[in-house]
Design brief:
The chain contains 7 helices and 5 strands. Helix 5 links the parallel strand 1 and strand 2. The protein is an alpha/beta fold. The protein has a 5-stranded mixed sheet with strand order 2-1-5-3-4, with helices on one face. The chain is rod-shaped. Helix 2 packs antiparallel against helix 3 and helix 4 packs antiparallel against helix 7. About 15% of the residues are buried.
Length: about 300
């Protein structure tokens, strides 16, 4: 029995293999019957099989356990990732909602800005229309003003002309005397149109100034106008209007005057120039044949009405 125990302990401590089993059979064959030996081998193999099954079950459970832990870890990581992704998705969705709100606000503001811009454009267009209308009205007013200015200028010119026509004539004594200074002198008779105060005044002024200049001058007398040819200033060498300087007529000088070779006396030239400057008019120089011819060496001033 002790030997069996020794054999069993040895067998248990030995590696289980076909070679070991056969060795055991061979060892015990001399002491044990073949059935017992075969039974022992069978038991030994069965025990090894059971041990293997136990080990296989253990490792299967261990693999299952570790597999569950791996799956739990994977699931936990996946859940964490899903939770993180869900959190990020929620945050993104919230951010998206915020952006959509901001975008809606911006779109509203943009629409309002476009509407305001449209209003401004319409107002600007209306202002441009009003400006164009005002410019047209201003141009019309300027044209009317220009025409009014033109009419005013014409009226002023007409008024000045009328004032000049109706104003009394006068002789600038300073200019008159300066023009006769150091000029040849002659005897002068002055005649004016009767019943014309303006002609009488000019005749008196010329007479006084000639006397002051040292000329020999007769006191002014009215024209003794008669009938027919004697009824105008022509009869005394004058013209119908203005002032005329008449000199003594003779045929030779008259012929020269007609062909443009007039030899007007220096005293007559000086007197006519002085009257033209002092009165700002063109004094006329003439000769008149007939009974009213001025005496030789005498100049006659005939003062007729204004134009």
């Amino acid at each position: 029995m002790r030997a069996d125990r020794l054999n069993w302990s040895q067998t248990a401590n030995m590696p289980i293999s076909a070679t070991t089993a056969m060795a055991a059979i061979d060892t015990s064959s001399s002491n044990v019957s073949p059935i017992e030996a075969a039974t022992r081998v069978h038991n030994l193999v069965y025990l090894a099989y059971v041990a293997v099954l136990v080990l296989a079950a253990f490792f299967t459970w261990l693999a299952w356990k570790t597999g569950n832990k791996v799956q739990d870890a994977i699931r936990a990581d996946a859940d964490a990732r899903i939770a993180e992704a869900s959190s990020k998705g929620t945050a993104l969705e919230n951010a998206n909602l915020t952006l959509r709100g901001q975008l809606a606000t911006l779109e509203t503001k943009t629409a309002d800005a476009i509407a305001e811009q449209r209003k401004v454009e319409i107002a600007l267009s209306e202002d441009r229309g009003r400006t164009a209308k005002l410019e047209l009205e201003a141009a019309t007013q300027r044209e009317r003003a220009a025409k009014a200015d033109e009419r005013a200028a014409d009226a002023e010119s007409s008024l000045l002309f009328l004032q000049k026509r109706t104003a009394r004539r006068s002789v600038n004594g300073q200019i008159f005397l300066a023009a006769l200074d150091a000029k040849p002198k002659a005897e002068v008779e002055i005649m004016y149109l009767k019943d014309d105060p303006d002609s009488w005044q000019i005749a008196m002024q010329l007479g006084g100034l000639l006397h002051q200049a040292g000329w020999k001058v007769k006191f002014p007398t009215p024209l003794p106008l008669g009938e027919g040819d004697e009824a105008s200033t022509y009869a005394f060498g004058g013209v119908p209007d203005g002032v005329t300087v008449v000199r003594h007529w003779n045929q030779e000088e008259f012929d020269k005057l007609r062909i443009g070779q007039d030899d007007e006396p220096a005293s007559a030239v000086a007197l006519r120039d002085a009257i033209s400057r002092a009165m700002e008019i063109g004094a006329t120089a003439t000769m008149r044949p007939g009974p009213h011819n001025p005496p030789e060496g005498t100049l006659r001033i005939v003062v007729a009405p204004k134009l």
